[in-house]
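To whoever is on call:

I kicked off a structure prediction for a single chain this morning and the downstream step that reads the tokens threw a length-mismatch warning. I double-checked the sequence; it's 371 residues and nothing unusual in it as far as I can see. Pasting both halves so you can look.
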Amino acid sequence: MPADAVIWSGVAAHALALGVSVAWTAWSIRRHGWRKRSTRRYSYYLYILLHSVRLWWLAALARSHVGGTLDETELLSPATAALNRLALCLGHTAFSMIAFSWANVTGPRLLPLSARHVFVGLNAVNWLTQAALFAALCALAREGPSARLTLLVRLDAAAIVGFSALLACASAAFGLLLSSRFVQLAAAAADPTLGTYISVKFNKVNIAWHTFCACFVLRAVFLSASLPGIGPRDVGRWHYFWLGYYLPDVLPTLVALAVLRKRTLPLPCCGSLLSPPRAFDSSASELHQQLIFSPALAISAAGSDAESDRPTSSGAPGGKAATRTREAALNESTRRVGVEGQLRTLPSPPSPLGAACAGFSCTLSGGSGLE
């Protein structure tokens, strides 16, 4: 039966995404331990929950044996409706977590509140809205068909479409702003290896935000087919389920896992576009983080001239002691990472670049899913 083929294709897609998510999470736990707390690790757990709930939802759909639309099926099966809302909220939380981690780099000039507060508030509104609409739908469905029930079904679809469109806009806006930040950093980087490294990150974020935006726009378009006056009601079961439900959950998950990581999977078709250069090894990366992405060193470099002329209480110039301390720290860091020759070639970062990179360093280390 065509309905069974649609459901089984969804089972295969979500089973693939669930298997990849579990394998990635197991690898991350084995490498970094259970206690690692980062946006990446939390997003892995959300992906596992999302696709597990989707598989449960598809099993409930297969058992319902209702030949009508999805709305009619959910009105007759409250468990199916609850699982669908839960999966929608989990997907919105998981993917908005990545989008708003990009917003951390843009700073308070874009958002009046911090990105974390906006993320928490938006998802709280989404979860509460879905819970309230689900409770109202269950209460009215027990009373039988009515004009109020029809209106509530349309309002429920409009809420799902609205949050999907909002997530698409947030992904596009924050992705574009982060891409522009990468362009600025690449232009300001004096070291060519670092410039290549930033260009790779630029390519990854571009792929991610384009994928996120396209998938959530497709969800908003095809789920709005149930709203009168917007689109045709009969868009085809394959198109409705695949472009409205399966693809917007599976494809962003695979892109977030395979593309938004430090070392992308080796793909001959991509070459060096998505893989950082091997010359940029861990020791060089640590040194770049210390000398370019560290705001403390940038501030220290900016204030070194002022400290060198400042006298101490004993009358001896205090700048010499501070200079000797900084030189000893840098020499120890150079000896520890074993790249003494590279230290001479790296320029001292100007303070504007160091300040601009503060949020960028935080995003790379745990905010944007780049592992």
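Update from on-call: the warning came from a stale cache, not from the record. Cleared it. Sanity check on the structure: The chain has 14 helices and no strands.
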